[in-house]
């Protein structure tokens, strides 16, 4: 009974949601190094372990920024090449049609 009474009046503490902006800002500050991890944690009201985790995550995933750009460029280039091949195909069909009709026109003119 005592345990039930204690839980009825207690409020649940919701974990603090931290924005990606703040995480990246703190991680960048940690990488630059003018302040210690503890100073940054105190300044931004987070646990020092979080600061270290965000810093590590930023360093580990920094390469993906450039890889994504390269992959996006490659995908754009593939779309462009596909469109150009389609255009070449259409122009080839059109040219063949015009050649055929021109030859037919010339034969009729000779008669």
Write the layout of secondary structure elements.
Elements: H1 2-9, H2 20-32, H3 37-44, H4 48-110
Task: Describe this structure in a few short sentences.
With 111 residues, this protein is mainly alpha-helical. The protein has four helices and no strands.
Account of the protein in words:
- This protein is mainly alpha-helical.
- 83% of the residues lie in helices and 0% in strands.
- The protein has helices at 2-9, 20-32, 37-44, 48-110.
- Helix 2 (20-32) packs across helix 4.
- The termini are far apart.
**How many strand segments?**
0
The whole-angstrom Rg is: 33 Å
Q: Could you say which overall geometry the principal axes of the C-alpha atoms support?
A: rod-shaped
Residue fraction in strands = under 5%
Mean pLDDT: 85
Helical/strand content category = mainly alpha
* Low-pLDDT ranges: none
Largest sheet, in brief, is: none
- Total helical elements: 4
Binned, the helix content reads over 70%
What order do the SSEs take from the amino end to the carboxyl end, as H and E? HHHH
**What's the N-to-C terminus distance?**
114 Å
Label this structure with key terms:
111 residues, mainly alpha, 83% helix
């Amino acid at each position: 009974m005592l345990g039930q009474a204690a839980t009825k009046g207690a409020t649940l503490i919701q974990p603090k949601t931290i924005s990606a902006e703040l995480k990246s800002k703190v991680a960048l500050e940690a990488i630059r190094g003018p302040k210690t991890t503890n100073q940054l944690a105190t300044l931004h009201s987070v646990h020092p372990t979080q600061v270290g985790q965000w810093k590590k995550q930023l360093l580990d995933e920094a390469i993906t920024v450039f890889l994504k750009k390269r992959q996006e460029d490659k995908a754009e280039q593939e779309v462009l090449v596909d469109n150009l091949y389609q255009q070449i195909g259409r122009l080839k069909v059109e040219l063949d049609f015009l050649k055929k009709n021109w030859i037919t026109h010339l034969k009729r003119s000779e008669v």
